[in-house]
Design brief:
Layout (H helix, E strand, L loop, with lengths): L2 H13 L7 H14 L13 H6 L1
Length: 56
């Protein structure tokens, strides 16, 4: 998935008041995942799968 498609998903979620992960939180999680060399992520209880798309 490319950045344009992700931006569309994020915009729609925000317009519909669907909670999504904030950019600053995402940056912290990204650094943690990179430091630990994580290869799998289980995303539970999300309305839009924006988090997992950002890392794969």
């Amino acid at each position: 998935m490319n950045k344009i498609e992700l931006a569309k998903i994020k915009k729609k979620a925000l317009e519909e008041h669907i909670p999504i992960i904030m950019d600053d939180t995402l940056e912290v999680i990204e650094k943690l995942l990179q430091n630990r060399k994580v290869t799998k992520i289980l995303e539970i209880g999300t309305a839009v799968r924006i988090f997992c798309y950002l890392f794969f």
